Amino acid sequence: MNTLQRIEHWGDTHHPAWLDVIRIALGLLLFLKGVSFISDTSRLSQLISDHNSFLSSVIAVHYVAFAHLMGGFLIALGCQTRTAVLFQIPILIIAVFFVNITKGFSFLNSELWLSVTTLILLIVFLVAGSGRFSMDEWMKNHPH
């Protein structure tokens, strides 16, 4: 077993049930954030265009919105959780270290704290996986 398989096995065997509630809440939060980005694309485009050129900002806006919508939905269901998390982590790293931290590292910067908390939870679910109450677990137990 290589290191990645050992981490995956450890995460699958050490996953308390209450962590599934947090996974579902995280998925819903990401999904709703995707909905808010779609409903106000000019705000997201402005955030991204401050750091990139126009073409890359258009691509980034679509990537962020789609990744949050689909990734949040998949994380909430517990379907391909680790893969969905891998698509979310680069977005949150950029949000924490390049976008939200420029507004200042204070307790009043709620977007920064939300981004940091979300990034930490994504890393937890990258290691821990879906859990018992997930589509992945159900499909493993019901192969047909």
Explained architecture:
The protein has 144 residues and is mainly α. It has one domain. Helix content is 77%, strand content 0%. Helix 2 packs antiparallel against helix 4, helix 3 crosses helix 4 and helix 4 packs across helix 5. The chain is globular. The two termini are 28 Å apart. The model has no long low-confidence stretch (mean pLDDT 82).
- Individual helix count: 7
Q: Helix fraction? A: over 70%
Order of helices and strands: HHHHHHH
Work out the count of structural domains: 1
Biggest sheet details: none
Structural class: mainly alpha
Strand content: under 5%
Strand elements, count:
0
Q: For the CA atoms, what is the radius of gyration?
A: 16 Å
Provide mean pLDDT, rounded: 82
Ends distance: 28 Å
Rough outline: globular
List unreliable stretches of 5+ residues: none
